């Protein structure tokens, strides 16, 4: 399962990295990853005019995009778009952080799953 990770590099800026969580055959129920210990889960909605300047993540968390489309800009100016079905692992809790803005002007719904440190 491909996940885009946002992390703070040694330059104190946010960077992107694509990681692949291995899935294992689990018979009739399909393929599963190893368990990941999590702390809590939240649902979130943001409006189509969402535009949040540089900010670090409040905690390490997965973000699962349910609909809408966003653009994330990292600390070195690289921009990537994410849409429904994409999964982010946001770990840039230090440094300047990243920018996030709505791309399609529509309501965006997502799930935040905070990690158990």
What this model shows, in words?
- Helix content is 0%, strand content 55%.
- With 117 residues, it is mainly beta.
- The chain has one domain: Jelly Rolls, CATH 2.60.120.
- It has a six-stranded mixed beta sheet, with no helix packed on it.
- The radius of gyration is 15 Å and the shape is globular.
- The mean pLDDT is 96.
3D shape: globular
- How many strands, which pairing sense, and closed or not: the largest β-sheet? 6 strands, mixed
Strand elements, count: 12
CA(first)-CA(last) distance: 22 Å
Tell me what the CATH architecture is: Sandwich
Describe the strand arrangement of the main beta sheet, using strand numbers.
2-1-10-7-12-5
Topology summary:
Layout: E1 2-8, E2 14-20, E3 24-25, E4 31-32, E5 38-46, E6 51-55, E7 61-65, E8 69-73, E9 79-83, E10 87-90, E11 98-102, E12 108-115
Parallel strand pairs: 1-10
Antiparallel strand pairs: 1-2, 3-4, 5-12, 6-11, 7-10, 7-12, 8-9, 8-11
């Amino acid at each position: 399962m491909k996940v885009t990770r946002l992390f703070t590099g040694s330059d104190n800026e946010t960077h992107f990295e694509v990681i692949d969580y291995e899935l294992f055959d689990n018979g009739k129920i399909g393929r599963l990853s190893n368990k990941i210990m999590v702390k809590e889960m939240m649902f979130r909605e943001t409006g189509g005019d969402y535009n949040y300047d540089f900010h670090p993540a409040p905690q390490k968390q997965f973000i699962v995009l349910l609909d809408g489309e966003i653009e994330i800009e990292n600390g070195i100016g690289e921009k990537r778009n994410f849409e429904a079905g994409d999964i982010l692992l946001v770990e840039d809790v230090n440094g300047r952080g990243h920018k996030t803005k709505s791309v399609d002007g529509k309501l965006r719904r997502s799930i935040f799953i905070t990690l158990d440190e």
